[in-house]
Amino acid sequence: MKPLQASSGDLTADRRADFAEMLFASREPAQAAELLLGALELAPQWAAGWFRLGEMQEAAGFLDQSAQAWTMALRLDAADRLGAALKLQLIGHAPTAAAPPSAFVETLFDHYADGFEAALVEKLGYRMPDFLDRAVRAARPARFRLAIDLGCGTGLMGERLRPIVDRLEGCDISAGMLRKARAKGIYDRLSKADLQHFSHAGVKADLVVAADVFIYVGALERIVRAIADALTDDGMFAFSVETLAGGDDFALLPSRRYAHSEAYVRRVLASSGFSVLSLESTTIRHDRGEPVGGLAVVAGRGHVA
Question: What is the pLDDT of residues 63-91, one digit of tens each?
Fold first, then answer.
């Protein structure tokens, strides 16, 4: 995938953009947007600049103008590595999609790979791998022959699974994350894969885990069916979601992550032949000092709930 153009390629435009960022940091979004628009007149093909302009205009309350800026960013970067389509959905200028752009998820995690663990664990208090590890061990206090760590990231979940599995495989959409996971030496196999198109060929697993992954998936029907197909008849599936209050199945949040309702999670699992073995409310992480509520779920095929 072609790298995202962080610079406009025009020195004068870049200087104006830098001044715009200073104004934005000083809580003057309208003035910042005006200055950045002037920079874009010099570099009209700069997709990242148009995306940033949309954010400044949104902060200033100019939603129609921000929609125009994000539409331009999409036109210049059809893969949508910055997630302009999600921004349009959040301000009501596009219907909510069932999944985010794959290129956005890949770009996001490639960007954060180097500082991912320090930011997530030390600053945001992320503890879901520990929580799911305990839930899996409680549901089946035995070794697993083959476990698949979906959206394995840097290997935080894999580190917990390694002591209880004979073979551990991981997959992730981000090459940067996979590089970090590979350096730990805990996986028997790692592969680059987009979970929106996940399928598993070969020997079936008896455990699949997806820790804090479905926040970047949206609609769960297809992925859960694929996981059911990847499992043995008595296999287990452990995962987490952010909790959605209200009657909707799932929703895109301002964070550009998805939240899912408990009723929807239970319905999707049942439709793919899973029984819920455990379902607990917990805090996934903290965001801007506030706890983010979620569900930690363990489900099984061939089990009685």
Answer: 999 999 999 999 999 999 999 999 999 99
| Beta strand spans in 85-154 (E) | 144-150
- C-alpha distance from residue 234 to each of 138, 199, 297 (Å): 16, 19, 16
Q: Do domains 11-95 and 116-301 have the same CATH topology?
A: no
Alpha helices, DSSP H only, in 169-261? 175-184, 221-230
Q: Is 89 exposed, middle or buried (0-12, 13-18, 19+ CB in 10 A)?
A: middle
Which phi and psi (to 5°) does residue 105 adopt? -65, -45
The highest-level CATH class for domain 11-95 is: mainly alpha
Q: Which CATH number is 116-301 given?
A: 3.40.50.150
- Going by C-alpha positions, the residue among 180, 170, 177 that lies closest to residue 109 is 177
Q: Report domain extents, the chain.
A: 11-95, 116-301
C-alpha distances in Å from residue 302, one per residue of 20, 91, 145, 188, 268: 59, 43, 17, 27, 16
Of 165, 211, 208, 173, nearest in space to 300 by CA: 208
**What pTM, to 2 d.p., does this model score?**
0.90
Give tens-digit pLDDT for 226-262: 999 999 999 999 999 999 987 899 999 999 999 999 9
The span from the CA of 113 to the CA of 96, in Å, is 28
